[in-house]
What does this fold into?
Amino acid sequence: MMQTLSTKEIVAKIKAHECFKAKVDHGGFSIAICNYVPFVATAIHAGEHLDKTLEQNCALSKVERYYEEDPFTDYFISDLPITLIGHDSRYAYDLNRIPGSCIYERAWEKAVWKRPLTNKVITKLQTQHQSYYQVLNALVETLEQQYKKCCVFDVHSYNYQRICDTLSPVFNIGTHFINKGKWQKCLTQFNQLLISEMNIHNIDVNVECDLVFYGRGYQAQFIREHFSDTLLIPLEIKKVYMDELTGEPSPLMIEAIAQGLQSVIYRFISTFKQVKLKAKRQQSIVDKTLLEFDRCLFQLSRKIDILNYVNPINFHAEEKKFFQKRGNYEPKFRYRQLKINPFEFREKLYHLPINRVSSPTLRQLYTEVIDALALDMDLLTSISKDEFFYNSLRIYGEPSNRDIANATFLLHAPDIEDKTKQPTLAGDSIIQLFQEVIHQYGIDFTVKLSDQMIAKAMVDNNKREVVINKNANFTDKELQALIHHEVGVHALTTINSEAQPLSLLRLGLPNNTHTQEGLAIFSEYLSGNLTIKRLHELALRVIAVEHMIKHMEFAKTYHYMRSICALEAHACFCLVARVYRGGGFSKDFLYLSGLREVIQAYHTVDISLLFTGKTSLKHLDSLKKIQQEGYLMKPKLIPLSFQSPMIKEDDAIIRYLMQSIK
It folds into this structure.
């Protein structure tokens, strides 16, 4: 919550190491401290405010003033842990000029005032200038005491159309007041990060030092004179993100710069101090407006359950007809009625106030989730219609040549596992084994049987249930694999998501199906329960999806699958029904492609954040960023299979097959 405080009160809170957000009582600037870290970001020219008396006396129009101000620089740094943002126009007093010269008479060859300012007004404005530097001094002094050294990112923007465009870099760093003997290595690293981390559509990012600006502002001078162990980096951003003449912004470019700059700053600081920053933001510090937005989105979207609606309610009856007609029949599956008004849903979805999300990375994630939910609604409203197939492809895609090659490779692996008759488990025995593992994890989940599903098992996140197909039988190894799949990954990520301060990961990020199923299959492998038969099953799903896409005839796909594999009739019908349900459901190929991507990531990066909820590998970097910002906590539970892999020595063939999935 933003407070209004005097300069003295702000300084006192800083010295007491309090986290707070406040606007100074004269209105000239605001400060936000969510976490005491060794860096500060400032946007001292972001403001455009003139009080009524000054505005009436100003000889320049608002458009003329806006041209020389630095719009959106406050937005670029808005969710960093410590920010100082100017609200008064630089035409009132310029925070980047020395106190005695901070008030313009002429600026950029134009007279600023219709009548000279009175001594009383000048004294007031200079006092407000002094107020900012009292706060800056207290802040940097406090951070230097805590961290020994500190960094200030002094963010500005500049007009480039009035200078030769070939001499206007996207980012310019002014080094006039920087002690290069001490900080040159840091400057070089910051430059390199700007180039590597900034991904701005249609813009070739380049960085120069002292090409169009030299960093001679008063803030840089103040830091150099008062703090030998603080590096201030004056960063000028070319106004490529807006029309500098009309002021019209380019929202997507603004988002890209905000995300990129914050990523650069976090990466730079992690090496600047040679420590990994730890988020200290607690749920109570997360803005109430953000929490309310998050809650509204979750409440609106929690009833969307695609698997529930695409499971045929007449599966057994249609299977019976299919075999009665010896496979020459196109099943006419029926589905549950949608209990959501799609028009109201879309209207409410796109009226959610996304602007309440201050973090650029978090805002981008929410935007993608909202767009994905709209696609999910398109899918649900088209069940059993021709459009369903195309909507499925929009959401899940289709098998690539690599997916098909991996599937074909796996199908050539002979199933040489023990063919002796193994006892099968069903009913109460299955429930008991599931409940034992649930108790071991200490989570609140129930287990029930159902005869209204095609899959062998699934997790109902909303009801906290593991639902098992009543008609399925399992060997002990198959059941252990299923437990590590459904409980070890799907149930645990549900529980972990509920422990987060935000509900974002309960809803699920785009592409989360791909990653979550990949993690679940990999959990089967790490637990020592993945079989060649299971790998064949995943491969057959890919082939079935490919055949469905090409032919769109249930019977034709069924007979083709029977011709290439040894599945018995019922199992083959279930396999084909999975990919034809709804009208053509391409999701099933994701199990194998998701497994491939998880295998690659497991051996190269830390994937623990993927267990924080319904996440995706595509967004792993974004998860790391919002963890640094304090919006994401470490996962409460990690699957047992990932904690202590139980791959047996005699699983050499399985290990070879897994290593060969490329």
Observations:
- The chain is about 50% helix and 10% strand.
- The chain has two domains: 2-278, 290-660.
- Residues 290-660 form one domain.
